[in-house]
Design brief:
This protein has 180 residues and is an alpha/beta fold. The protein has helices at residues 37-50, 91-100, 113-120, 137-144, and strands at 6-16, 21-31, 57-59, 71-74, 80-86, 101-108, 130-135, 150-158, 161-165, 170-178. It has a single domain (6-178), classed as Restriction endonuclease-like alpha-beta roll domain (Restriction endonuclease-like alpha-beta roll fold), CATH 3.10.640.
Length: 180
Amino acid sequence: MALRSTVYKADLHIADNDRGYYASHAVTVARHPSETDERMMVRILAYALFTTAEEDLAFGRGLSDTEEPDLWRRDLTGHILQWFETGLPDERRILKACGRADEVVVLAYGRNTGIWWQNVRGKLARAHKLRACALSVDGTAALATLAARNMDLHFNIQDATVFVSSDTDTASVTLEPLEA
């Protein structure tokens, strides 16, 4: 018998000073049994960083469906406007996403981000639709400690730094652009 996903609910209060976006969103995230708290929280962070007033950003099926991204934004016809990947995806997956979407965003995290980027950077040089960022290792580890079945998270985004607070703790994640 296969294990089922665990449902997490989060109230996100976003103050993005860089974009001038201030809003609250209630999201439901299905956490795959093999997914870590860190990966799930990075997906929620990606939602906070890229959501808009149109609320057309949606979580994909993630680990249970390899043909869908972690998050994506589609228009009313189903055309993929933005494709979001978290972690250290394979360069073939990124190139395939670049062929299907208008823009691809990768939020790389983990201790091996530098090594991963050195290995895929040359292969992704022709991916003009790609925007990649490395998340701070300590920041994503601290972000993982905020995971709970019901979360009330406050995101303050300014100058490529995201300050996240909850009732229990805080985390600070910095984003460093990766250049091909």
